[in-house]
Amino acid sequence: MPTDAELVVSAARARPATLQGGRLVCIDGPAGSGKTTLAGAVAAATGAEVIHTDDLLEGWGGLPGLGATLARVLAPLAEGRPTSWRRWDWHADGWAEDHPLDPSPLLVVEGVGSGPARLADLVTLLVWVEAPSEVRLARGLARDGEQMAPHWRQWMVEEEELHASERTRDRAHLVLDGTGVRPPELR
């Protein structure tokens, strides 16, 4: 049985390129579901660059502006031109350095909100990763610390609203269980 990363790579390669010869894989789903781990495995298997939406958000309240940020970053790639993105420094609570991004055969954007409907024509493969809320919260607090519980709980409400309004899971080409309990669903 192929790994989830192998499924993602195979499914992406089977679909037409969407970025002037390059392919864009967006790995979306709720926080703590396993998106970052999956993106790392895809990158390790392919050499793809990964952009984490956590780096594009203007803090805990930045989710509503993410779609516009992604559009600005991805539009030049869709035309075969280089682009750049700026990293949010969570510790300094402000924007940090710029990161150049050249067109490439495969780009992975992972994180909550990485597959907005407004960019569907640029997305080669939209992957949805899910896990039960109690598992996701436990993972998040293990990583970020118990003091972040209020932020995590509010974030979980906001991401649920975003995913419902965007119908992200419904639009996904591949649905994966971040706990590995259920088999993948390729659409």
Summarize the structure.
This protein is α/β, with parallel strands linked by helices. It has helices at residues 4-13, 35-46, 66-78, 133-144, 149-166, 168-171, and strands at 23-28, 49-52, 83-89, 94-101, 106-110, 125-130, 174-177, 185-186.
Structure commentary:
The chain is globular and about 45 Å long. The protein has a domain of 128 residues: 3-Layer(aba) Sandwich (Rossmann fold). Helix 1 crosses helix 2 and helix 4 crosses helix 5. By secondary structure, the chain is an alpha/beta fold. The mean pLDDT is 96. It has six helices and eight strands. A hairpin with a 7-residue loop joins strand 7 and strand 8. A six-stranded mixed sheet has the order 2-5-1-6-7-8. Strands 3-4 form a two-stranded antiparallel ribbon.
Secondary-structure map with pairings?
Layout: H1 4-13, E1 23-28, H2 35-46, E2 49-52, H3 66-78, E3 83-89, E4 94-101, E5 106-110, E6 125-130, H4 133-144, H5 149-166, H6 168-171, E7 174-177, E8 185-186
Parallel strand pairs: 1-5, 1-6, 2-5, 6-7
Antiparallel strand pairs: 3-4, 7-8
Helix pairs in contact: 1-2, 4-5
